[in-house]
């Protein structure tokens, strides 16, 4: 039922988009009022076959990232995008951690091109990032969506493009775990919280910090990006929490007096 409703909704929204408004006007006759499937696929960066399968109810529901791409291509409002996310199974009820990045916030992030910027949810899942973030730390598209989580990266894999002193690492990990503890209290019935804690419990450092039961909001950090072309980039990270969505916008700025600004400009 959800898949069929999703397909019907996508088809209706596709039909209403004026091709000329997205730069696709041509002289050839059209059998559809709005975008062709291939045109929507091109604008969203997915295959035409996948669009057809979604509309016909023959595909699994799309990922949050695909939903965001479809929303941009279809020029959906924030309310419509939230509806699309719900149809795709990304419910944002009071018991679940919000994961929808409003189009307005994505536009702000995309225009902050002078600094690496990323958006995380309250579980520290990476949801959106700008081009400079990908250039500095590596493109998250190359990482499975389930592994794009700051806690998993820190305690399981450690991004080779990030270096921290022992003091920076200790503070960062304590702060992240205390923030996760606070999230677990705010969303006690979200199964994703329990699943993440269970997965991380295999790590000794996490287990020790979790046992402290410290509660705090993670709001800043220091780290050095290690880039293969420009070398070390010392950065300060500040976390901004959005109203009513519990999303975390992480803005990374060059540490003064280090030459980091010049290196970011080269990568940008």
From TrEMBL:
<feature type="domain" description="HTH cro/C1-type">
    <location>
        <begin position="30"/>
        <end position="82"/>
    </location>
</feature>
<dbReference type="InterPro" id="IPR001387">
    <property type="entry name" value="Cro/C1-type_HTH"/>
</dbReference>
<dbReference type="Pfam" id="PF13560">
    <property type="entry name" value="HTH_31"/>
</dbReference>
<dbReference type="InterPro" id="IPR010982">
    <property type="entry name" value="Lambda_DNA-bd_dom_sf"/>
</dbReference>
<protein>
    <submittedName>
        <fullName>Transcriptional regulator</fullName>
    </submittedName>
</protein>
<dbReference type="InterPro" id="IPR041413">
    <property type="entry name" value="MLTR_LBD"/>
</dbReference>
<dbReference type="Pfam" id="PF17765">
    <property type="entry name" value="MLTR_LBD"/>
</dbReference>
<dbReference type="GO" id="GO:0003677">
    <property type="term" value="F:DNA binding"/>
</dbReference>
């Amino acid at each position: 039922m959800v898949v069929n409703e999703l397909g019907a909704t996508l088809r209706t929204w596709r039909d209403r988009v004026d091709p000329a408004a997205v730069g696709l006007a041509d002289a050839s006759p059209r059998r559809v009022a709005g975008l062709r499937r291939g045109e929507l696929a091109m604008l969203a960066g997915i295959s035409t076959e996948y669009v057809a399968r979604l509309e016909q109810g023959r595909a699994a529901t799309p990922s949050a990232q695909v939903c965001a791409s479809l929303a941009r291509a279809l020029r959906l409002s924030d309310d419509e995008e939230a509806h699309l996310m719900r149809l795709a199974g990304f419910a944002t009820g009071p018991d679940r951690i919000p994961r929808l990045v409003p189009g307005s916030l994505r536009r702000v992030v995309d225009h902050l091109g002078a600094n690496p910027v990323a958006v995380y949810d309250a579980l520290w899942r990476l949801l959106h990032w700008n081009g400079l973030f990908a250039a500095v730390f590596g493109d998250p598209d190359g990482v499975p969506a389930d592994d794009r989580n700051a806690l998993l990266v820190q305690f399981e894999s450690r991004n080779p493009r990030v270096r921290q002193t022992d003091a920076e690492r200790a503070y960062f990990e304590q702060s992240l775990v205390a923030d996760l503890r606070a999230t677990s209290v705010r969303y006690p019935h979200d199964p994703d919280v329990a699943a993440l804690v269970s997965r991380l419990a295999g790590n000794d450092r996490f287990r020790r910090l979790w046992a402290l039961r410290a509660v705090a909001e993670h709001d800043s950090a220091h780290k050095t990006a290690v880039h293969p072309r420009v070398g070390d980039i010392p950065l300060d990270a500040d976390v901004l929490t959005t109203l009513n969505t519990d999303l975390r916008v992480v803005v990374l700025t060059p540490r003064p007096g280090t030459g980091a600004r010049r290196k970011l400009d080269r990568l940008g």
